[in-house]
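Technical annex, item 7. During the second reporting period the consortium partners agreed on a shared format for inverse folding records so that results from different sites could be compared directly. Each record opens with the tokenized structure and is followed by the designed sequence. A conforming record, contributed by the partner at site C, is shown below for reference.
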């Protein structure tokens, strides 16, 4: 894949691997085991994309650099390194679409900001409709996007076929195609590059990334948090930010409050490499499946969440079978391609399929969770608004509607129609 940056001091993930992990390479620096200090201004719990993005924007936008990012495992081993790289902003409701749109704009310049190529590729994202009602729903979302200044097109089956000659648009197909939306600025970003780009930049800023450090409890006195207890000792801070995806409810229990969150496994899989044949990302809510082609030629396929609740990073085979059969009916040419490997991440799902970003009932404790299947695409935007919330002790205008209080007030933002499939 051709790099979008040509400056001599910009590293790609492939150049790092080719260098053989030399001393002081990006990976060597980022994976170093740092001993935490006793006191920080802010501790970010969770070393995934959202946690590292939060630390980055705290430094960049608010001048706060005395930060520790505490990760129970290794950087890049959680959901950030276990997703399928899709980015887009064509959500239905204004609150969601503007937040994801802000994130998509940040993706556009993130390689330059981090001086690390995150491989953002505007290949386009299709959302297929398989019934008259679904076609009306897709058209409604296209119109809502346009009203919010977000690029979105509605295409007929014939127009879809022009973009993707290999797709089956037969009216007698098991999943006939009635139309689709297209966001041309949507596409993919390389997840490993995001992890290492943020880790390298945080290291340069002087932010401590503390790996293999499990948080065992929050240190709270008079309903004010002032530190964490870890297997490396107690660490104190003025403010604590939690961005741990599926483990969010555990930290809420430590703070003696509850989150309306369920954790589910989310699967994906790749095929053997084949020649370039599919440029855009193709999604289908009706069949709960989506597919794109990676830069090395593999077909990247994903599905909806497994129905059972749990913390396992493995899923059920029937999910793979059902989604793969649907993809083969949409793209018959893929029927002879061999499955290469599968994996699963752990997602936290809220009742309205939207995140929770903001303050908690415990003073100086902030939470960022509930992204469900949409977490990766929101990485820079999430970090941006979460950092603002932490620095100012009040939400950014873009995450004001995503407070925990909405589940008591009833002001939900129902994005199940636009976020109901893993992508």
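Designed sequence (site C submission):
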């Amino acid at each position: 894949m051709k790099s979008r940056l040509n400056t001599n001091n910009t590293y790609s993930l492939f150049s790092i691997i080719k260098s053989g992990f030399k001393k002081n390479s990006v990976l060597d620096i980022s994976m170093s085991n740092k001993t935490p200090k006793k006191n920080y201004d802010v501790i970010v719990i969770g070393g995934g994309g959202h946690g590292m993005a939060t630390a980055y924007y705290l430094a960049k936008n608010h001048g706060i650099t005395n930060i520790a990012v505490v990760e129970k495992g290794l950087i890049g081993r959680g959901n950030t390194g276990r997703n399928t790289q899709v980015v887009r902003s064509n959500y239905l409701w204004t609150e969601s679409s503007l937040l994801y749109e802000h994130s998509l704009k940040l993706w556009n310049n993130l390689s330059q900001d981090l001086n690390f190529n995150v491989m953002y590729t505007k290949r386009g994202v299709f959302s297929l409709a398989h019934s008259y009602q679904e076609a009306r729903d897709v058209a409604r979302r296209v119109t809502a996007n346009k009203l919010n200044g977000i690029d979105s097109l509605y295409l007929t089956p014939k127009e879809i076929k022009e973009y993707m000659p290999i797709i089956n648009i037969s009216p007698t197909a098991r999943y006939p195609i009635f139309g689709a939306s297209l966001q041309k600025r949507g596409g993919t970003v390389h997840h490993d590059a995001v992890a290492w780009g943020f880790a390298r930049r945080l290291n340069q800023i002087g932010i401590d990334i503390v790996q293999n450090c499990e948080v065992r409890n929050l240190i709270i006195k008079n309903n004010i948090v002032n530190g964490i207890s870890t297997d490396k000792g107690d660490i104190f801070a003025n403010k604590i930010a939690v961005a741990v995806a599926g483990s969010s409810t555990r930290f809420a229990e430590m703070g003696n409050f509850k989150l309306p969150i369920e954790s589910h496994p989310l699967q994906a899989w790749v095929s053997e490499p084949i020649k370039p044949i599919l440029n855009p990302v193709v999604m289908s809510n009706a069949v709960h499946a989506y597919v794109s082609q990676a830069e090395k030629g593999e077909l990247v396929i994903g599905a909806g969440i497994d129905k059972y609740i749990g913390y396992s990073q493995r899923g059920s085979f029937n999910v793979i079978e059902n989604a793969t059969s649907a993809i083969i009916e949409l793209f018959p040419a893929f029927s002879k391609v061999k499955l290469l490997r599968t994996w699963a991440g752990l997602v936290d799902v809220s009742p309205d399929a939207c995140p929770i970003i903001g303050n908690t009932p415990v003073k100086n404790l902030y939470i960022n969770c509930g992204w469900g299947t949409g977490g990766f695409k929101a990485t820079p935007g999430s970090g941006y608004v979460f950092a603002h919330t932490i620095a100012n002790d009040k939400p950014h205008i873009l995450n004001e509607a995503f407070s925990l209080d909405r589940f008591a007030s009833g002001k939900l933002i129902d994005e199940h129609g636009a976020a109901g499939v893993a992508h």
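Confidence is low (pLDDT under 50) at residues 1-31. The domain at 125-187+263-349 is CATH 3.30.9.10 (D-Amino Acid Oxidase; Chain A, domain 2). All partners now use this format for quarterly exchanges.
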